[in-house]
Amino acid sequence: MELGLVQSTADYCVFYSKDSNKIRVCLYVDDGICTGISEEVVLEFLDKLKGKIEIKVKPLQFFLGLQIERTPNMGVVIHQWQYI
Fold first, then answer.
1. Is the dihedral of CA 73, 74, 78, 83 positive or negative?
2. pLDDT at residue 27, as a whole number
3. pTM over 0.85
């Protein structure tokens, strides 16, 4: 919240910005996702967050046991094949 985010009242793990950058952060224990209006905006936000807490920044592949893959046509596939 020190970085200008508001905590969602519908889900306390979700934080968002009310400005034009459209930052959305979902945190759960030691796992998180950050999205925004552009990659530049997200990376800038994550740099600020690194000044507050220790985080690792890498492309999204797993979140809460879900495997997440981007398709060549900008789509997204979410699955749990490793659990089958």
1. positive
2. 92
3. no
Residues paired with 78 in a beta bridge: 68
pLDDT of 33-70, one tens digit each? 999 999 899 999 999 999 999 999 988 899 888 999 98
Question: What is the DSSP pairing of strand 14-16 with strand 24-28?
Answer: antiparallel
HEC sequence for the chain: CCCCCEECCCCCCEEECCCCCCCEEEEECCEEEEECCCHHHHHHHHHHHHCCCCCCCCCCCEECCEEEEECCCCCEEEECHHHC
**pLDDT for residue 30:** 87
CB atoms < 10 A from the CB of 65, how many? 9
